[in-house]
Design brief:
2 domains, histidinol-phosphate transaminase activity, Aspartate Aminotransferase, domain 2, 3-stranded antiparallel β-sheet, 7-stranded mixed β-sheet, Histidinol-phosphate aminotransferase, aminotransferase, Aspartate Aminotransferase, domain 1, 362 residues, alpha/beta, binds pyridoxal-5'-phosphate
Amino acid sequence: MNTIKPQPGIMDIALYVGGKSSVDGMENVLKLSSNENPWGASEDAKEALVRASLSMHRYPSTDHGSLRDAIGDVWSLDPARIICGNGSGELLMMIAQAYAGKGDEVLFTEHGFAMYPIYANANGAEPVIVAERDRVVDVDALLSACTKKTKIVYIANPANPTGTMLGEADLTRLADGLPKGALLVLDGAYAEFVEGYDAGASLIDARDNVIMTRTFSKIYGLGGARIGWAYGPQQVIDVLMRLRGPFNLSAPALAAAEAAMRDVAHTEKCRIENAKQREWLAHALSEIGIPSDTSEANFILARFASEEEAKACNDYLTSQGILLRYVGNYGLPNCIRITVGDEASCRRVVHAIGQFKKGAKT
Ligand SMILES: *Cc1c(COP(=O)(O)O)cnc(C)c1O
């Protein structure tokens, strides 16, 4: 028997479970469990991906220069301070790898994204869970939880799965209140859904302890292609560049991402349509007795009367071929997260939940 042992923390990792994507024996399944874009990627992005796939015998760009320039143009950021990753997940992990290890603490909040404790454990650091206030990140609680050992604070803004977000004043207070040597990571996976939000760019430019991560998986509709990016202080980006694999992004993915970034009209269309359908969905659910917090993202956190009701509703919808995300594992046992779909999907999900409320059984 081999006695080789993994590094401390790794066996504490509970495997991440993604949103379900199929139901046995059922066609025409409606997947609203992974916050994917129902309108898909930009046509330009799809064309660019196919074109790039014709040269797959060539290694991809190693500095991602052309994608970083496109991101810099669209978001008015310095490309030298942008790093691209294999999904934003790779960058979020690299941040922990770079700055948190044995004896260090990594903070995140009770309903925070399920990957944050994994990044801490994977690097032998201590995950620290901090309470929220009514499903909103609590800046005071985070600041009181900080110690000399705190190295990283991860928050998603807007947050997943709650959909709530902090305003600029709270973000500033959080960044300014962190102990020296700690880094605030603003996970901006849903930032593009918020009109006029810079995802923390101005906060980052004004200090040296904040970094933001972004993704092509949500509003850009490229979750399957695996592309994300981060923008932060030069010193932090220089560290991450050393950890990054030289060919971490495929050439087709790079081409698709660049075209998607430059197709500002498609992004804008998706943002506007999402906001419209989200408002309709939240209102229609509230009319049948299911409240939700105001969401700033592309999903709604539907609150049921009890854990039993939420689970039963989730099971009923699965039996009808509608996949949602039950979020008991996020400390929200009476809640289901519903991705905002196109108009027909929103109507279908509300109709099915209405049938459940009227007593329909699996
Ligand atoms: C979906 C999501 C991501 C994106 O992950 P990728 O690796 O970029 O696909 C990151 N953070 C949160 C909170 C998310 O919900």
